[in-house]
Amino acid sequence: MINQQRLSEALEVEEKLFISRHPKSKAAANSASSSLIAGVPMPWMTRWPGSFPLYVRRASGARFTDIDDIEYIDFCLGDTGAMTGHAVAEITKAISKQLSNGSTMMLPTQDASWVGEELTRRFGLPKWQFTISATDANRFVLRIARHLTKRSKILVHDWCYHGTVDETLVIADVNGQTISRPGAIGPQIDPALTTRVAPFNDLAILEQQLQHRDVACMLIEPALTNIGIVLPEDGYLAGVRELTRKYGTLLIIDETHTICAGPGGCTKLWQLEPDMLVIGKTIGGGVPVAAYGMSAELAAQIEQNLSDHDVDVSGIGGTLSGSALAMAAIRATLSNCLLPLQFEQTIQLASQWTAGVTKSYTQHNLDWNVQQLGCRAEYWFCKPPRNGAQAAAASDPKLESFMHLWALNRGVLLTPFHNMALISSFHTTADVDLHTEVFNAALDELSV
Predict the structure, then answer these.
(1) Where is the domain boundary, 313, 336, 359?
(2) Could you tell me if 44 and 93 lie in one domain?
(3) Total-model pTM
(4) Is 104 in a helix, a strand, or coil?
């Protein structure tokens, strides 16, 4: 148990320390409030610890420096967007070269076919298309699934995350009915009209939802990653694949975050067999990109629709999707990063991070857990949850704010929204040891 009075006092001290150390970031935030909503260019930037966001001067490898000239170890890495590390030389060179030759012409380059072949090698699906975000890719595969199956609904996990796709910003209420997730604003329609929900790791409820035979596709992360890391129980994903086939529902796997499991994500590591797959962020090395792949059978069915006269109004595409710049960025990223030897290094460091956190909260008699998925690890304030609802029930915003701010004030940045570390090939054992030291000191402070 955490003493709430002590937590409040410690958080107040950390807030004052944060403000005193960052006068330039505070001034920049105050200035930005005159022209930017909430003073930030994108709403999620308000979720950082402290009363204003840090302003970055430069980032390289696994570190960044703010405008007050304070350096940090970055375990957030743009919430997976910079999982390769910041300013990777080979990627920067390729992007710069392509920019000098034109960034977007709405015509293909030879990089595109190389990228398609590499994605096929990594994930096993033979046909690919590209977008500028995983959100777009998810919207497109949902549209394709409905078109091919002639079914109206989709199915997702309770407390899932698939970007800002309206239909997936849902949870199940106490009666198991679909409702909007807390915080979702302006849903176009009642989400129960479009989306069915099943808890993670519950095959019985999943089959109940599929028995309606109105579900075009099930869109999943093979492990939940945005409500704490929730891992699949033995046999769960095999059961998902069996049930979706039984009821004629397409299975779509979103590897945007779970690529942390290895070069081919969980799909390759766990030998999954999706009908379609989405991957975003990471494969562009910082350039906005995403891709979606599909089986040969589905590709043969949809190719006619995506090549006829009215393709520009099909609801799929975008003039910046698959641009020359995007293809150059993905090719450079997949050629130089996210490779087997790099994953060996980063997974080992994530295991070290996990062991350090586990030892610390155990010594402090806290009933917490830390879960690891490849080179991603995250602690949560409860026993290991088996679904998203259990993880959400253990959320503690004040404690989370303190843990993040304590770390930030000591030169360590974690991912906002949750308590996650993502490891790049630029991180070192010393970086992980520093986090362990800082984490342990935070628990010592709360134990005073």
Answers:
(1) 336
(2) no
(3) 0.97
(4) coil
Q: Confidence class of residue 311 from pLDDT cuts 50, 70 and 90?
A: confident
In a domain, 162, yes or no: yes
Structure-block tokens of residue 345: 């290094």
- Clarify whether residues 174 and 240 are in a common domain: yes
Instruction: Count structural domains, the chain.
Output: 2
Characterize the bridge pairing of strands 71-74 and 63-66.
antiparallel
Helices 110-123 and 324-336: angle between axes, nearest 10 degrees: 40
- What pLDDT is attached to residue 66? 98
Torsions phi, psi of 196, nearest 5?
A: -105, 155
Separation between Cα atoms, residue 417 and residue 420, nearest integer Å: 9
Per residue in 115-156, pLDDT tens?
999 999 999 999 999 999 999 999 999 999 999 999 999 999
Among 122, 429, 152, which Cα is nearest to 266's?
122
Rounded to whole angstroms, the Cα distance separating 240 from 128 reads 24
Write down the pLDDT at residue 1: 75
Per the CB < 8 A criterion, the answer to whether 164 and 42 are in contact is no
Closest CA to 373 of 292, 259, 294, 297: 259
Residue 103: the pLDDT is 97
Q: pLDDT tens-digit profile of 275-310? A: 999 999 999 999 999 999 999 999 999 998 888 888
Q: How far apart are CA 366 and CA 292, in angstroms?
A: 42
What is the distance in angstroms between the CA of the first residue and the CA of the last residue of the chain?
Answer: 13
Structure confidence at residue 302 (pLDDT):
94
Q: Could you say which DSSP state residue 162 is in?
A: B
DSSP 308-348: STTGGGSS---TTTT-HHHHHHHHHHHHHSS-HHHHHHHHH
Asked whether the beta carbons of 424 and 59 are under 8 A apart, the reply is no
Distance of CA 123 to the CA centre of its chain: 18
Full DSSP string of 179-245: EEPTT----SS-GGGTEEEE-TT-HHHHHHHHTTS-EEEEEE-SSB-SSS-BPPPTTHHHHHHHHHH
Task: Report pLDDT digits (tens) over 353-385.
Answer: 999 999 999 999 999 999 999 999 999 999 999
Give strand pairing partners of 337: none
Q: Which residue, 183, 164, 167, 163, is CA-closest to 218?
A: 167
Q: Phi/psi class of residue 359: alpha, beta or left (left: φ > 0; alpha: ψ in -120 to 50)?
A: alpha
**pLDDT greater than 80 at residue 448:** no
Residue 2 counted as domain residue:
no
What confidence tens digit (pLDDT) does each residue in 410-442 have?
Answer: 999 999 888 999 999 999 999 999 999 999 999
